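Quick one:
INPUT:
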């Protein structure tokens, strides 16, 4: 006769086997990415620039797909994808980040695992090449969620992440925007009406073959931001959120509004408690609530069934997505 303790173990083992089998049979994965949202005119981007952006988004998607189609985790996929975008000067994250009021780059990032609800975030980085990897080591190798400034950098360094000179992040185009911003000095209070001054935050959300969702977001923030200013991107629930119970979300837009409205968590909560679909929840938050507050931006998201949403209230959002069913897209404008 099987003893009760052994029987318990046996049934747990069987459940595990069955769920692995179901996941493998499902073999379903999905990935969505963004490179920022803004009210930009089509004419302000040349054909060549448009092509560069679309190619970089496609390259990032491909890296993510290699991981997901090989049975890799959604966490590995979103980190790898965001690293590609951080390494590109086209986007406002990692290299090519915008400058703060003192002419410095201060970088923010966060990552969240929808299975465990573990999360990691960093803010005010100046020397870690890939802030998203710093967020991941905070999540996995510390008992904390959020580290800032020097402490975050020391922790990233101790965990073997690549350290660079602050000059590594410099990009001439961003520097010119910063100089223009200082000259105009138009953004004193509510400000930041020039969308191109901050455009380019990056993010990724993935669903892997085991049904786990992860979300990652990385940014340089907003041009001319006060030293020490923290936007929504590294704030769990505001610019980034993931839960296998509902969805994963990565946001981009005017951070102060995204914090006040807890945008990413609001979308997940509307689904979880209110039974809304991902599309309805995202539309209400981005295209009703934020619009009423005159707040620009957008989100990308995937729900637990693999539905993808890219919702924005601006003329453009750099974005792309793919699914295991073979759907593919990369786009900038509507
Ligand atoms: N949300 C970012 C911030 O406020 C900026 C952006 O996504 O455009 O720092």
């Amino acid at each position: 006769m099987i003893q009760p303790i052994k029987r318990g173990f046996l049934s747990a083992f069987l459940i595990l086997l069955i769920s692995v089998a179901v996941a493998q049979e499902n073999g379903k994965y999905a990935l969505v990415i963004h490179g920022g949202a803004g009210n930009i005119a089509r004419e302000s981007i040349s054909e060549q620039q448009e092509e560069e952006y679309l190619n970089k988004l496609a390259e990032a998607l491909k890296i993510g797909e290699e991981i997901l189609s090989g049975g890799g985790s959604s966490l590995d996929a979103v980190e790898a994808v965001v690293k590609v975008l951080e390494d590109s000067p086209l986007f406002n994250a990692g290299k090519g980040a915008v400058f703060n009021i003192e002419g410095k780059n201060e970088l923010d990032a966060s990552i969240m695992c929808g299975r465990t609800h573990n999360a990691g975030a960093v803010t005010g980085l100046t020397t870690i090449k890939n802030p998203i990897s710093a967020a991941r080591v905070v999540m996995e190798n510390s008992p904390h969620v959020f580290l800032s400034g020097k402490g975050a950098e020391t922790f990233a360094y101790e965990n073997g992440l690549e350290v660079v000179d602050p000059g590594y992040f410099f990009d001439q185009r961003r520097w010119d925007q910063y100089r223009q911003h200082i000259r105009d000095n138009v953004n004193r209070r509510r400000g930041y009406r020039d969308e191109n001054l901050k455009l380019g935050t990056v993010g990724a959300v993935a669903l892997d073959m085991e049904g786990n969702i992860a979300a990652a977001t990385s940014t340089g923030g907003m041009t001319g931001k006060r030293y020490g200013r923290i936007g929504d991107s590294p704030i769990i629930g505001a610019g980034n959120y993931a839960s296998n119970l509902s969805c994963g979300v990565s946001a981009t837009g005017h951070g102060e509004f995204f914090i006040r409205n807890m945008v990413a968590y609001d979308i997940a909560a509307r689904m979880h408690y209110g039974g809304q679909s991902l599309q309805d929840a995202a539309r209400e938050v981005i295209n009703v609530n934020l619009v009423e507050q005159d707040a620009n931006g957008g989100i990308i998201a995937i729900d637990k069934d693999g539905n993808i949403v890219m919702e924005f209230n601006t003329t453009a959002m750099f974005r792309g997505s793919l699914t295991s069913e073979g759907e593919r897209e990369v786009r900038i404008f509507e």
